């Protein structure tokens, strides 16, 4: 008995010593990691042990902190997330290297371990190296002009519903919160254009598609610090129902897609939506060999490895990218649509020019694919709203090898973060940066400006693949609204809007309130 107790105590001591040793080693490695930028001569804010600079970012807000640090440390500085070194770059010439000249060194995004489980792990934002090149080449034709035109009936249906809703609000005299309306429009458009479903969120916000779609954004932020320090836990936790992104809502959309794919493989009904285009691609074979618009054919120069030369995407890849269509498309559409309309309401001279252009190009007809493409001034108004409030307020990349970036040495595995919000409001690049001025986006003004001073959708082969669809549906929605009505500020309006970043999403603190009046 005494021998058993002694053996147990010895084993306990060994385990305790082992655990303590591992903790000491981990702490030492963390401490050494926090000296990376000091050794490389890159300035930056002082990190805290274990959490690095993550606490400062979470307490101060990403956009505000990047803006503050940019003033303090310059256009290149380093932070730790939490112990992983990340270089913040807002030097435009260096960004040209990252996105274009040295893209081969920076073709991957930062690994997102919080999404490193099925179905999310196969989406385009998450994929890396040759797998990303393969999926990108298969998806690119889906956003060609011909394929976008096929999605028009779904978009038209939602725009007509939006028009009726705005008219009802106007006749009742109720003020309209634009983010709420734009969010409903975005959700309904995605339901139709991506999944072939007719959803009326404007009149039925409790529709399961909308409820579960919004729930994907209600992430479990209490889990983020744990996953930042122990990223390898994400796949295990997801198996027991604990995830950064709602498992319940993810399963809802997986069931929707499983049912849709099964039905479409059995019947011959013609669907014109994103999911059907992916399914058609699976039937027809390699989509990268089909016709692709030159402006979206970013992958033609990228040779796909032999491991990824199969003819089409599998079901997991299709479902993952339909999900990211929802996640990425919702915020982009709702933010740009709401902030553009709000700024037009606050700037009557800009609104008048936009309405005049719609009158000339569209008249009393319904806005369509062709006429929407002719609304150049409205496009300038949208671009200026995206300059002030970029839906993607930062872009990230990862160095695949040691590489020189200007006078700096970037090590393999080091993260790169591009603070678009800070760049878009930098007084060196923009005069009166806080002012809303669509004239900044005339061809003449753009020719005089550094091309990397404005990047609402990123740059290079890894830019936003769905940007043309987003721009099209937003342009059509705004054109329809101002064709029939005039948005004006009301008693509840707060201009300029104050932006908050709850859960890394850009929202107006006081809402974006306007009244709509009939056109005179």
From TrEMBL:
User: Membrane-spanning residues where?
Assistant: 6-28, 216-234, 322-346
As for membrane topology, the entry says: Peripheral membrane protein
How is this protein annotated for GO cellular component?
endoplasmic reticulum membrane
Record-linked Pfam families:
p450
Q: Cite the PROSITE patterns for this sequence.
A: CYTOCHROME_P450
Q: Please give the InterPro entries that the UniProt record associates with this protein.
A: Cyt_P450, Cyt_P450_CS, Cyt_P450_E_grp-I, Cyt_P450_sf, Cytochrome_P450_3A
Gene3D superfamilies according to UniProt? Cytochrome P450
Family note: Belongs to the cytochrome P450 family.
Listed name of the protein: Cytochrome P450
What is the protein's species of origin? Answer: Littorina saxatilis
Its taxonomic placement starts with: Eukaryota, Metazoa, Spiralia, Lophotrochozoa, Mollusca
């Amino acid at each position: 008995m005494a021998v058993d107790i002694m053996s147990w105590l010895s084993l306990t001591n060994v385990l305790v010593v082992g655990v303590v040793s591992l903790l000491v080693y981990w702490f030492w490695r963390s401490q050494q990691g926090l000296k990376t930028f000091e050794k490389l001569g890159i300035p930056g804010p002082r990190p805290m042990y274990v959490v690095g600079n993550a606490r400062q970012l979470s307490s101060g807000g990403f956009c505000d902190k990047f803006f503050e640090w940019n003033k303090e440390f310059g256009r290149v500085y380093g932070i730790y997330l939490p112990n992983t070194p990340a270089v913040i770059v807002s030097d435009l010439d260096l960004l040209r290297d990252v996105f274009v000249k040295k893209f081969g060194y920076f073709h991957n995004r930062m690994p997102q371990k919080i999404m490193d489980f099925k179905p999310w792990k196969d989406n385009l934002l998450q994929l890396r190296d040759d797998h990303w090149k393969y999926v990108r080449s298969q998806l690119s034709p889906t956003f060609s002009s011909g394929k976008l035109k096929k999605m028009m009936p779904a978009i038209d249906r939602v725009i007509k519903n939006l028009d009726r809703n705005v008219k009802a609000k106007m006749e009742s005299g109720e003020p309209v919160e634009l983010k709420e309306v734009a969010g409903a429009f975005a959700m309904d458009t995605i339901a139709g254009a991506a999944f072939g479903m007719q959803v009326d969120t404007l009149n039925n916000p409790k529709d399961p598609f909308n409820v579960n779609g919004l729930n994907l954004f209600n992430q479990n932020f209490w889990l983020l610090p744990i996953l930042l320090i122990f990223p390898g836990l994400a796949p295990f936790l997801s198996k027991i129902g604990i995830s950064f992104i709602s498992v319940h809502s993810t399963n809802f959309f997986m069931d929707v897609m499983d049912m849709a794919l099964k039905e479409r493989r059995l019947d011959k009904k013609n669907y014109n939506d994103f999911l059907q285009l992916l399914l058609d691609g699976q039937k027809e074979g390699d989509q990268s060999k089909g016709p692709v618009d030159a402006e979206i054919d970013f992958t033609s120069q990228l040779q796909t490895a032999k491991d990824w030369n199969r003819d089409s995407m599998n079901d997991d890849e299709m479902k993952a990218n339909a999900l990211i269509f929802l996640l990425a498309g919702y915020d982009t559409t709702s933010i740009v649509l709401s902030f553009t309309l709000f700024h037009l309401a606050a700037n009557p001279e800009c609104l008048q020019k936009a309405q005049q252009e719609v009158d000339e190009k569209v008249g009393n007809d319904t806005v369509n694919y062709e006429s929407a493409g002719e609304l150049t001034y409205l496009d300038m108004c949208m671009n200026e709203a995206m300059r002030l409030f970029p839906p993607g307020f930062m872009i990230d990349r990862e160095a695949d090898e040691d590489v020189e970036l200007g006078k700096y040495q970037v090590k393999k595995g080091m993260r790169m973060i591009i603070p678009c919000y800070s760049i878009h409001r930098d007084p060196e690049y923009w005069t009166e940066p806080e002012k809303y001025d669509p004239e900044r986006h005339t061809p003449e003004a753009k020719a005089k400006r550094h091309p990397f001073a404005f990047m609402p959708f990123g740059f290079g082969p890894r830019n936003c693949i769905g940007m043309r669809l987003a721009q099209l549906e937003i342009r059509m929605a705004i054109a329809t609204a101002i064709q029939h009505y005039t948005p004006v500020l009301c008693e509840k309006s707060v201009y300029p809007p104050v932006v908050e970043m709850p859960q890394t999403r850009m929202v107006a603190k006081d809402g974006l309130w306007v009244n709509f009046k009939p056109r005179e």
